[in-house]
Amino acid sequence: MTGLRFIAALTVLLAARAACAAETAQEIVAKADEIRNPGKPFKSTTVLTEYRSGQPSDRNVLVVYSKIDPATRQFRNLARYIDPPRDAGKMVLLGAVLWFYDPATKDSVRISPQQRLTGQAAIGDVLTANLAVDYTATLMGEETIEDAARQQKKCWHLDMKAASETATYNHIEYWVEEGTHDPVKAKFYADSGRLLKILYYRNFLERLDGLRPTQAVIIDAVDSSLVTVVDFSDSKFTDIPDTWFQRDYLPHLNAQ
Amino acid sequence: MIFKIAFRSIFRNTRRSMTTMLTIAIGTAATLVFGAYTVYVTYGLQTGTVDRVGHLTVYRNGYFDFGSGNPAIWGIPHYEAVLKLITTDPQLKPLIAVATPVQYLTGIASNSDNGESRTFIGTGFIPSDRDRMKHWDEYDVGGRGDDTGLRDDDSSRGIVGEGMARVLGLCGQLRLGNCPKLPTGAPSDTAAASDVANLPKQDFSDLVSRDAPATRKGPSLPRIDLLAATAGGAPNVVDLEIARADPQGVRELDDIYVGMHLNLAQQLVYGRGEHRATGIILQLHRTEDMPRVRARLAQLFKQHGLDLETRDFAEITPFYTQALNLFRSIFSFISIIIGIVVVFTVSNAMGMSVVERTDEIGTTRALGVRRSGIRSQFLVEGILLGAMGATAGVAIAFLVSYAINQQGITWTPPGQAQPVPLKLYMFGAWDMIGTIWALLIVLAAAAALLPANRAARLQIVDALRHV
Amino acid sequence: MPGASNGRQNEARDGAVVRLDHVAKTYRIGAVAVRAVRGVSLSIAPRRFTMLIGPSGSGKTTLLNLIGCIDAPTTGTVTIAGQNVAKLSDNALSDFRARRVGFIFQNFSLIPVLTAYENVEYPLLLTGVSAQKRRQATLEMLEAVGLKDQRGQRPNELSGGQKQRVAIARALVKRPDIVLADEPTANLDSETGASVIALMRRMQTESHTTFIFASHDPHLISHADDTFTIRDGEIVASGAAA
């Protein structure tokens, strides 16, 4: 990763934009990542509410266990459905590969990339990803934008390109508030150049030893009537054994 | 002398012999006409298939058996070099009519105007090559489908199946003829589940409008979004302007088909990675060159260490072989029935002839003709009946075929979208004519065998007494 | 005039061209056994006009059939031109008849689809005679029986007498050892019948072929060289006529 950081720094210098002289674009993104999610393992109750043209159409409550994998420096997540009762007990393992476990069949199924195009599986990528790892950031400049609460925020406007073949999005536009490094808004683009998702962070509250966003609003840019609101609550640090993130272990977890 | 006697004996009982020969003639004609129809169907099916999928397709080794679920990861690397290798090879060049790359893909097609979406299976192709392929007509059956209506220089346009157009609600915009209305009680997937009924409405219009896309100006073609996962597993989406809806012939395909320019397909499926192609389609000038081309391709691939395989249109479109086998089995079935009728009729006529000429048989034997001579006499009569009847049948078949061809009847073969003219192939189907003609003669001889044997076994004195 | 006697006539030790030794023929009709010929022994001299005379049902037809090799005896030996015919296979017997035996039937038995010429020619095809010789012999024979002008006509266009004359020509055209005639005049009126018998007699004299004919008509005895009288399957008398 040292080489990439060097290139990022070089890019920033060559761009010769008015920027925070003390920090590189990549460092800004990394700090924003830390604000979104702490480095220590934690669990969180997550409520996903789906709205169609403003009408609530679906709601799931999950408990999500998150832990960083030191090898990839990305989060691995184990999500367990709690509500509604018909989905209770189902689990999803998010890592390099997405596994879905159904306690009724005691079988885990791999969800392929084609199957993650729509629905809840589509948003897993944007929530806990450490963007600094898979994307190379360039500082475009400063920009004052409206956040999700209609507050004006002075932000760094960053342009992020996929650093590898495996990064989910080809290109991301990111607005991070100057000074606080709070993530404000992100726009995720597909390989074709078209906008796929718009993400707003809001409701910054005390959570997991820090002021962190407790709500994300995800707008589907392809079908703009579809908006998903993700609420985080009851977050606490907790030890999570590595075995929990193994697919074969899922049936045992269910017993707890 | 045998033939003289046989021939004249046949016409002794003119009415019976005429009836027998007519039976044979009609049987021959019916078999031939249906045979010509089967030949026509074979040519028609083959032409329809080769028009669409060419003769041979080169794939990455293993794609055909395992790759259809995820074409994105089975692309041929450096496909342009492979294409060049094939088209510049001196052995292959004169045999190939069209060589063109294709990309197969699957994803979700959605209409943002009404929120309708469905999975699609699509093909990315080069429009001019596609149109050229439709001109292949080795057997002169005529009646091919429309051109794609797309241009090589415009990657943004495509075509959809009529069923797909209907589901996405584009029926009216594409001016399709058969446009049923959604019934009033139609179900909807946007009804809220009971657990969300009590949640408050929210207004996101402000957030959404900040990044809303600019409205397109002026009259434009209906537009849909195509979502797919790239070979690298990333979600991707492209715009497709629909030039027209093209009926696909088979309903299942019609409901899910999207056709687009190769570049757009590659953009969607490969994104930032190397743009590949699922296959290279080869359409030859003549179907009979297929084995040669296949062998040469295998040679070339081996030489250059390419892990590619070649499949022919019968493998790619098993329906072709299935349909042909169906027709052939019907043809066999009909032929057997006709054969049974012919055997029965000839056997009956010959049997009566033997009984009527019992005293003649006795005399002939007394004159010194051997038993085998008697048997041959009647066998020859059966053969002559068969030959005359069969020949008349061939003539009738030609006349009937001519008459039918002149009517200009059309029909729509199974699996195809367009009607084609019905043409019975008698001229040129000499193999078939010769075989059926010979077979009917053999049948007549076989039918005459039992009565002939009976005649040969007669005791001379008993025969002579029989007046 | 067809050539004189051919040297093919083999003669048994006693000069007979036909010899029957204790020949008997029994055939069954359902459960009943009928003894048509009972223990007949006779010799027929060659080149003579021999008559078998007897009432109907006397067995003369059966005897003629046995001599003509179109039937086989139940017991006894039939020797024709020195050949024990019992020793011949079915095919060999057919060939033997084709070359050596001529038939004249009471109902003419011409092949209805062939012309008079073709009917007469037919036996020559069985013995592999060349086309030229066939033509020559057939025309000669037709001329001899006085039917050259009718040679292109089919049997249904000929009168009874004409048909029988064609039969005679057919029987003789291959120069057989023996010619057998079974009631040759039975289906002809007396005048025609007389002329047919006269023709047969003349042909026999000119060709020196052995003629054996069966009849129940005593008036024909005067034409015969030798006679055998048959009653109930046995020879009751034999003699040489004038």
What does this structure look like?
The complex is a heterotrimer of chains A (256), B (467) and C (242). Chain A is of the alpha+beta class. Chain A has a single domain (2-254), classed as Lipoprotein localisation LolA/LolB/LppX (outer membrane lipoprotein receptor (LolB), chain A). Chain A contains five helices and 13 strands. In chain A, strands 6-5-4-3-2-1-13-12-11-10-9-8-7 form a 13-stranded antiparallel β-sheet. In chain A, strand 2 and strand 3 (74-83) form a beta hairpin. Chain A is globular, with a radius of gyration of 18 Å. The mean pLDDT of chain A is 83. The two termini of chain B are 24 Å apart. A six-stranded mixed barrel of chain B has the order 2-3-7-4-6-5. In chain B, strands 10-11 form a two-stranded antiparallel sheet. Chain B has 467 residues and is an alpha+beta fold. Helix content of chain B is 50%, strand content 16%. Chain B has helices at residues 2-10, 14-53, 63-67, 79-88, 127-133, 162-167, 205-210, 251-256, 262-270, 290-303, 313-316, 318-356, 358-367, 371-407, 430-456, 460-465; strands at 56-60, 96-111, 116-125, 157-160, 223-229, 235-245, 257-261, 279-284, 308-312, 410-411, 420-421. In chain B, strand 5 and strand 6 form a beta hairpin. The longest helix of chain B has 40 residues, at 14-53. Chain B is elongated, with a radius of gyration of 33 Å. Chain C is α/β, with parallel strands linked by helices and 242 residues long. Helices cover 31% and strands 27% of the residues of chain C. Chain C has helices spanning 60-67, 90-100, 116-126, 131-144, 160-172, 190-207; strands spanning 18-29, 32-44, 49-53, 75-80, 83-84, 101-104, 178-182, 210-215, 226-231, 234-240. In chain C, the strands form two sheets. Chain C has a six-stranded mixed β-sheet, with helices on both faces. In chain C, strands 2-1-4-5 form a four-stranded antiparallel β-sheet, with helices on one face. In chain C, helix 3 packs across helix 4 (131-144), helix 3 (116-126) packs parallel to helix 5 (160-172) and helix 4 packs across helix 5 (160-172). The radius of gyration of chain C is 17 Å and the shape is globular. The two termini of chain C are 25 Å apart. Chains A and B meet through strand 1, strand 2 and strand 11 of A and strand 2, helix 7, strand 5, strand 6 and helix 9 of B.
